[in-house]
Sequence to fold (414 residues):
Amino acid sequence: MTSKTLQSLQDAIIAGNIPQIVLHMIIYAIDSRSSDIHIEPEKNTVRIRYRIDGVLRPIVEYPLNIHPAVISRIKIMSNLKIDEQRVPQDGRCQVTTEDNREMDLRISTFPTVNGEKAVMRIQDEAKKIPTLEELGLEGSGLKRVMAGVSQPNGIILTSGPTGSGKTTTLYACLMILNKTDVNILTIEDPVEIQMDGLNQSQIHPDINYSFANGLRSALRQDPDIMMVGEIRDRETVDIAIESALTGHLVLSTIHTNSAVETITRIDNMDVPLFLMTSTIHTVIAQRLVRRVCPSCREKYLPDDDTLALIRKTLEGIPQGENIDPQLLRDLIFYRSKGCAECDGVGYRGRVGLYEVLSMTNDLRRLILKRVPSMDIQEEARKSGMVTLEQSGVIKALRGETTLEEVYRVARKKE
Fold:
C-alpha cells in the first residue's frame, strides 16, 4: 500500500476539501487492492473501511459535519438524487486512474439512523479473467469441471455465499467455451466483466426484465450455451431445466453452503426429482480464503487436537490428488507474523477452495429415493468428491493459506 496516498486522503480530510476526499478515497482503495469502500456514519464520526481480500479493514475517519457534502459528491458522480435521503439508491460511474486504467464504480446508498451510508464497489474493466487453475481448482475437481463444460447440454451450478467468486468461476468456464462456432448468451445482474464473443444482457426488474424473462427470450436467440447470473426462484430453474432438456448447456449460480445442499435447495423449489437428476450434471461449491504472505510466513506444528482433526479430515481423499506424501506424513502448517509487504496483516491475495460434485447413477438413485443429505454427501465422497474442508487443508499443507483461514470459511467434519 502507498502511505503517500493515505497521507493525501488524511490531508484532504483536514482541509475539508470534499472532491479531494472522494478522489483520494478511490485512489487509495485501488492502490490497496480493495473491492469495496464502506462510508459509515456513526454517532460522533464517520468511519471509512475497505474490504481487502474479503475482510473489512478500518482505514480512516472524518467529522460528521462534512458527511452530507461527501455523500452529495458521490451522488453527483453517479447521477443519483441529491435531495433524496429517505430511500436507498443505486448508481454507477466510471473513473480513470493516473495510469489510464478504467474503473467502474457501483454506488449504493442506504439510510441509517446516523445518516446515509454509502458503499462503492470497484470493478477493474481491464482485469484479466483468471483460468480455473489460477482460481485454485486442481486435481479431480478440475477434471470434473472440465468434463462438465465439455458436455453438449445440461446444467452446471456454482454455489457459495455472496462474494465467494461464483461469477468469476463461471467466466473462467465461459473462456474455455468461447469459440467462434457457438452462440453464448448471458443474463446478468449486473454485467460485471465484458467479454468479446459473448452476447451479454443486464436484467432490469423495474421494467419486468427478470432472469426468468431474459432466459425465456434468450431461447429464441438460437443459443448453444447460456449463463444465468443467479437461480432465485422456481420459474428460473424451470426454464433452465427446459433449456437443458432441449440441447443447451446452462451455467448459473445459486446460494447454498455446499454441493449437496444445492440438490436439497432445488428439491425445496418443488422441482420434480427426475428432471433435476437428468439435467444437473455438475455442482461446484466454493469459498475464498486469504493467501498467507510469502514474505513473513513461518512453519509450525499444530497441537494434538488439531492434528487429530486434520488426520480425520484427510481420510478418504481420492488417489491422484497430486499431494506430496511427505506433506501428509509431516503435517506441518504455516502462519505469518505480518510484515511491510502485507501491511502487517499476514495475508496477501486470495485463492479458492472447491468441492465439485459430478452426478453419477448411484447419486441419482439416492436423490430419487429422497434419502437424507448426509447419505448423499457420503456417496459423493465415495465417488471421489474432495470436500471444501479437504481442499482447504491440502492448500494449508502446501503453505498457500493457514488453517485459521480454512476453518473461517469451511465446516469441520462431524
In short: The chain has a mean pLDDT of 91. The first strand starts at residue 34 and ends at 41. The CA atoms of residues 152 and 249 lie 6 Å apart.
